[in-house]
Amino acid sequence: xxxxxxxxxxxxxxxxxxxPADPETANFCRQVQEACYSRxxxxxxxxxxxxxxxxxxxxxxxxxxxxxETAEFAEVFAGNRQLQGMDPYATCYGGHQFGNWAxxxxxxxxxxxxxxxxGRSERWALQLKGAGLTPYSRMADGLAVLRSxxxxxxxxxxxxxxxxxxxxxxxxxxxxxxxVRDMFYDGNxxxxxxAVVCRVAPSFTRFGSFxxxxxxxxxxxLRQLLDYTLRTDFPHLGPPSKETYLQWxxxxxxxxxxxxxxxxxxxxxxxxxxxxxxSILGLTIDYGPYGWLEDYDPNWTPNTTDAQGxxxxxxxxxxxxxxxxxxxxxxxxxxxxxxxxxxxxxxxFSSAYEGYxxxxxxxxxxVEVFDGELAAELHEILPLVETDMSIFYRKLAMVExxxxxxATDEQLMAPLMDAYYVPExxxxxxxxxxxxxxxxxxxxxxxxxxxxxxxxxxxYVLRNYMAQLAIDKAEEGDYTVVNELxxxxxxxxxxxxxxxxxxxxxPDWARDRAGCSMLSCSS
Length: 523
Ligand code: AMP
Ligand code: MG
Fold this sequence. Notes:
523 residues, alpha+beta, 39% helix, globular, binds adenosine monophosphate, binds magnesium ion
């Protein structure tokens, strides 16, 4: 029964049907002109072995757990076998990397399998990451290691359950082959187990998908891609016209602003916000050297490749999104032919972002109305001492603000003590300042704030060391931690007493360990 279910997946590949293909079908690295994609087949791997799958994503595709546990499932989602109706291809896109135009990038290690239309008539594109060379692989191998694949798989699903717009992950399959990686680009290359993740999203189109055609003056392909995007992913905007293009741009700006506000809400740092890693649907995409903010430090970046300029640091994400959106606007100029309306839309980013952020902060704090001064003082206090962001907000709901009149500062802040990494940093001055803030806050907090706050301040996030624990075990062939974390992160806002350790501060051993606080683009 279960194998038949997979065979029954109904593919309707609009992307390849309606957009211009690269006429070349041989698989070698090249510049691809006047085409949105190149057909390419995933490479076969030695011994596919399922590490984990997300049952909710399987469900989206009308696949039962029984289907996902078959050997055929691992074969298909390792890329060894194609199902009837699949039409594998890699897309052509460009991008700005760390602020510089990088020209053609493209799906260098992602191969799209096609689009499934499920029983509810929803369209979902499937994409294998790490399934071998494509015409866009440039100098690299098209492969992915288990380490980065565990991170992408778990974080995609964790973000979804946190309510953050994201691409999804269906499956994580070990290939049974070794892949050589120099994790920190320091001459210490070593073999690591290879893996493939199957990502799922309505579309994987990026800002850079438009930029490439614009940069080359391929205006007709640019138009084709945008019209296709409107028809497929933004049908509510109506038939293509200059006005609809602007409406579309406005919507991408809005969605991106909302996504970034969510990142700031949960303490997520993407790490490589290049324009090729920005989804036009406002989905978090391309989980590489991302990290979760533990110690509240707006200057923190998990990505060692970005350690110098810290362009992609936590606190800079809204500004970078703004900049990236401006690049997308620039790419639309050949179609819109007027700078002003594009300019007007991009100028609205900051207020859009502020709107989302203030609404979220209002919930995070459980106050009646947003108070900018109250928020600003909190954001000055948080970085003064090493404070765990997630724990601080979660426990803030437990501060007895009603009793503030009689309590000392220390009594008042008692529920927050779990959030501090270095208790010796809590000087009298600090306590007095926080105490004053808590009293001020208490006067504005809703009586029933706990439920509201608990719905937006997660008890569990994918702390960097947790992913690393799952990786360490998975590399030994033990997938229990990957699956346990997947389970845990399904309900990030609920107390799970049997898994309490994951709600606690990062353990000390993880402070400076590779993979826990330092990551690179090598994956
Ligand atoms: P990223 O910043 O990781 O999203 O990657 C930037 C570009 O490099 C994209 O075009 C990727 O497809 C490509 N790329 C990254 N890693 C590999 C790899 N191992 N093999 C081929 N292409 C890669
Ligand atoms: Mg990328």
